């Protein structure tokens, strides 16, 4: 992820900003592809630094975001109105509470295939993994959280899982990390 954000040139125009924000948001929050696509501007709460997400079974959850992501979100929203206007979308459409957070180059709401192509385009530049998708970013989010000491239950809530067993899928790297620590630290290992 560091390699992606530090070395890949996303560009300077609005589509580049949107693409970077899509990837950053997926990685920083662990949200599902469908949750990202359905985000509206009104779902972003800058005052409390969280995003309201409607997950599976219409279950609503709040996902916190960092100050760095808030700056990127604000920049994106400032650039969105002029871009949408140039695309023929009335400014009033952009300012409505139910207006989509992410729009395509033609000013319409993004769709799953759009996000999938965007993510694979940029991930393919920094990895040799055969399977690159938006879900890889969700998986990476969970793995990085667990490897950095987050409690399994907290990660479960952030991901919107109904059962802890669904979250335990992401613990495989943590077990490998524990084995490494064990071998380094235990005198009989």
Describe it.
The protein has 189 residues and is mainly α. It has a single domain (2-185), classed as hpI Integrase, Chain A (Orthogonal Bundle), CATH 1.10.443.10. It starts with a helix and ends with a helix. A hairpin with a 5-residue loop joins strand 2 (50-54) and strand 3 (60-64). It is built from ten helices and three strands; from the N terminus they run αααβββααααααα. The mean pLDDT is 86. Strands 1-2-3 form a three-stranded antiparallel sheet, with no helix packed on it. The chain has helices at residues 2-7, 14-29, 33-37, 67-86, 91-95, 112-123, 134-147, 152-159, 164-167, 172-185, and strands spanning 44-45, 50-54, 60-64. Helix 2 packs antiparallel against helix 4 (67-86) and helix 2 crosses helix 7.
Question: Quick summary of this structure?
Answer:
The protein has 189 residues and is mostly helical. It is built from ten helices and three strands, in the order αααβββααααααα. The chain has one domain (2-185): hpI Integrase, Chain A, CATH 1.10.443.10.
Looking at this protein, list some descriptive labels.
189 residues; mainly alpha; 3-stranded antiparallel beta sheet; 10 helices
